[in-house]
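Sample 3 of the quickstart, ligand manganese (II) ion:
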Amino acid sequence: MAKQKLEYIWLDGTEPTQSLRSKTKIVDSFSGEVSDLDNWSFDGSSTNQAEGGSSDCILKPVFVIPDPQRNNAWLVMCEVLTADGTPHPTNGRATIEDDDNDFWFGFEQEYFLWDPETNKPLGFPANGYPAPQGPYYCSVGASNAFGREIVEEHLDVCLEAGLNVEGINAEVAAGQWEFQIFAKGAKEAGDQIWVARYLLERIGESHGVAINWHCKPLGQLDWNGSGMHANFSNSLLRTANSKETFHRVCEAFRPVVAEHIAVYGADNDQRLTGKHETASIHDFSYGVSDRGASIRIPLYAVQKGWSGYLEDRRPNSAADPYKVAARIIKTVKPVK
Ligand code: ADP
Ligand code: MN
Ligand code: MN
Ligand code: MN
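Result:
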């Protein structure tokens, strides 16, 4: 049997936005079961996760899928532990309280394909700007859709790996795209988003294109920012059959706006302006079909007799889905 390549992937300690890191471990054989994987270690002093004096941090495998881009290879998402085996402060996954997988999450990950030479999105001329927003959303054609070959390659690779991508679309700004991933279980949803981000980064590398996860990379010009809308449900919402229940869940968010914004991604004040289909970062609102609200009640839920899910529109493209999910669960779980 061929030797196997295990790509151990983790989140570093970069502030304010953690980055992906990974390294390859070669083993003689591997069953495909995450429980058969050994912990590994890395130099935390090189990732802003430890002091030089005692620099070892531990990688604990938590999620594994085949790596479609390499032969005999696997992608291994890991939690980071400190040397004493407790969760590292940068380990958002360990803060998720959803052991029964009652929470389902669908994240809509937006991002820009970015030309490292012009330092602008694909589709932007080196000098000046392309035509204003309008034709790019869900577009087709070389004048409006930029980088589709990367997006398609990413979709194929994700599906082949077994990630539960539910769709993709070109977004409102030129060079901006979205993919959606859904999972039953908050940890699994976070794992899948992070591995999908990893694969997108690696595909971008092979095309000489960077992925810009910043929520407002074009500043305050008239271009949309990037979000990561968090669609969520628990059994209470899925079986509510009650407008009052939906409103009770929404109201639970009102007193903890600051706690949510704290983990909804860096620089979100630049994006949540009240323009470009966002609510102001200073307000809290919810409404049926309202894309200008903090939380949207999908028409779907109303049509199902007030059962289904909610969409928190505030998390941004650079947010950590683990921390977003952990915070939403903390707010929603106590609601009866
Ligand atoms: P829009 O762009 O209109 O906001 P999308 O179709 O891009 O909507 O995303 C909707 C998301 O909602 C999908 O990721 C889907 O998986 C998710 N979703 C649907 N039903 C549920 C549910 N019961 N619980 C959690 N998420 C859900
Ligand atoms: Mn969407
Ligand atoms: Mn979108
Ligand atoms: Mn949405």
